[in-house]
């Protein structure tokens, strides 16, 4: 599909070479959207100083050699040397028709890479809280986008399923009884189960001694202890899946790749690092000291790969994940969708893996940093008691609030239909609010803003799709049968058609930058262009049959683009609202 900005860049670049010589043939033409035209080429200003000429003279030279007559109706030099480029209406219409006819709606298919993406990562026998929302939602959107671009995505849900807490959890499971109501809490209220185990551990020396002994048995691979451990993991998986189903994300049991998966690799990791002189013993622990990583007073900060008591930490497991994802999965890119505070730790892990040869050149690890979710007070969102907000409660409240909005707006619908719309609107609102801001920044969680039917919100975009479907229902037309041809007769038609052409570039941009908010911005702009079209260009009442067919084709392309874009974000589009 045609990206106007990309095509113009190539044309202007060719003109630069023809006008100024081969040395300038690779110069960035600096093509940008413009308020005075569709696009603007700004290269002349930067080149003028280098050439010792007036910018307008350089611009005139470029224009004299510029071949864009097939796509531009106007080329104008303005100001100190900007080249304004206004596209032809028939060219825009033709490209919009091509996008309508394209099964991929203009989304490019890139050279396939294998991408391992680490996201969500809750802990066994612990509640998922609001802090897990962003890593799950952002990671899932990136997985969807990368797959749409043609990449092989391997989801890696690095759950916390190993370590010392399992001693007390297993003993509490035995005390409570397998299959008991208390054990079932791991499926429904895991924090209650965990806290009960912690209280016994802190209050009973006898229980604490049993728990410590159980940890040793777990680490030694005792079959009965491993069976009990697996039971806790299985119970927690039921809970995780309830959350994932509610959030409508693509994670499955097959994507679970917890800490335990790498347990057998850890001794070999340490042995190799020590043998090769990358790690050394310091105060009884095996540590890696890397140049440039220092703390207070310039003291080196170690990456501890084996503790003084012989146990392993996150650093060891994270090194094992790098080795596994490169050697076993064949990953070209490693994405870690986790909190921003983990930046230093990850950089140390990656540099250690580079030194060990486990992270070869050409394999790119990326930290997709996740910022905090804030309350209205500007602090990390918590309950009044200061505890993290349970994710399930937050999602349930979103759906309840959405149900009230739907009931007020659509009392004509039956209860089941309203409930279905409320689920899609409530969950979509929460996910879109998260995705529409840069993933590494903080944002304030505000139900009223999220559920608003105006502004850059999920419900606004969902309402746009429902409005388009309503037009098709009233016209008795199937959107899939709207074939055009597209023609442009009004400015609002032109704006909508031109906006459609940005979908493929927007999706590709998310794949390159790993920033889902870029797709949100595009979809919001498209929805606004549709609103302008809706207000100025009647479809059902169009007198000319050709204009009517063209407008049906335009809104069919708009509907597919909005729904496809929302789907890449993991947001459903209700049939009606």
Structure, briefly:
The chain has 577 residues and is an alpha/beta fold. It is built from 21 helices and 13 strands. 53% of the residues lie in helices and 12% in strands.
Report on this structure.
- With 577 residues, this protein is of the alpha/beta class.
- It is built from 21 helices and 13 strands.
- It has helices at residues 4-20, 43-51, 55-64, 89-101, 130-148, 165-176, 181-188, 190-203, 205-219, 223-247, 266-275, 314-327, 343-356, 391-409, 415-435, 447-450, 458-475, 491-500, 503-513, 517-536, 545-569; strands at residues 31-33, 39-41, 72-78, 82-87, 114-118, 152-156, 280-282, 285-294, 300-306, 333-339, 364-370, 373-374, 443-444.
- The strands form four sheets. The protein has a four-stranded antiparallel beta sheet with strand order 1-2-4-3.
- β1 and β2 (39-41) form a beta hairpin.
- α8 crosses α9.
- The longest helix has 25 residues, at 223-247.
- It is globular and about 85 Å long.
- The chain starts with a helix and ends in an 8-residue tail after the last helix.
- The mean pLDDT is 94.
- Its main location: cytoplasm.
- It holds the Pfam family tRNA-synt_1d.
